[in-house]
Amino acid sequence: MWNSATETDIAEVAAAIGDPSRTKVLRALGDGRALPASALAAEVGVSMSTISGHLARLREAKLLTVEHDGRHRYYRLASRDVGRALEELARIARPLPVRSLRESVRTQALMRARLCYDHLAGRLGVALLAGLIEREVLVNDAGSYRITEPGLDRLAAFGVDVEEFSRRRPAIRYCVDWGENRHHLAGALGAAIADRLFALEWLRRGRARRVVQLTEAGQAGLYETFGVPLDWADSPAEAT
């Protein structure tokens, strides 16, 4: 019996992403949240009629999904894999020219600490993974990470139930961070830790899309709990 599977249409996805305005839409949704078309139009700097065309194209390419809430519609990345693909593309793409102080501050903030769909990225994400290994919560076994027995206890004390979060998706994955060119923690564990940091109010969202910041309690808590050094960031500047 012949296998009916064919090669995937990379060109279609690449063409959908290739427009600068549609790329901005995907980046704006890169922290996993759903946004209305009006917010995306403002983010991209286009009219509502124009953003409607872009959103339709991204939905046709299966990069976005739409959620209905009464008369309102909200758009979200279609899957975590879309977020991972954007992160990987960012690694091989040329940097955009910085045209203003505002853009420079925002870029530095994104490189310092941001959400990559549902987990931490940037210098903070890299430092978190390094701390988890240093404290032997995780071990790197020939490029594959796994949770140790003492790590299970430490995570439980932190408020993360490993059995619960790993039921529907792989517990541990990683992304190669486009800014640091090192691994940051993804997968169910990465998402669960990020959720817990928000719940504890150790982490808060910045004013710019995807940007996050540690509170003072978060700085101290991550150092005490997972060994994340207090000087993980070069500066405390926030994106505006």
UniProtKB/TrEMBL annotation:
Q: Which CDD domains match?
A: HTH_ARSR (cd00090)
Limits of the HTH arsR-type domain: 2-97
Q: Which Pfam families match?
A: HTH_20 (PF12840)
Enumerate the SUPFAM superfamilies for this protein. Winged helix' DNA-binding domain
What's the superkingdom here?
A: Bacteria
Q: Which PANTHER family match?
A: HTH-TYPE TRANSCRIPTIONAL REGULATOR CMTR, TRANSCRIPTIONAL REGULATOR-RELATED
Task: Quote the protein name from its UniProt record.
Answer: ArsR/SmtB family transcription factor
Identify the taxonomic lineage of the organism of origin.
Answer: Bacteria, Bacillati, Actinomycetota, Actinomycetes, Streptosporangiales
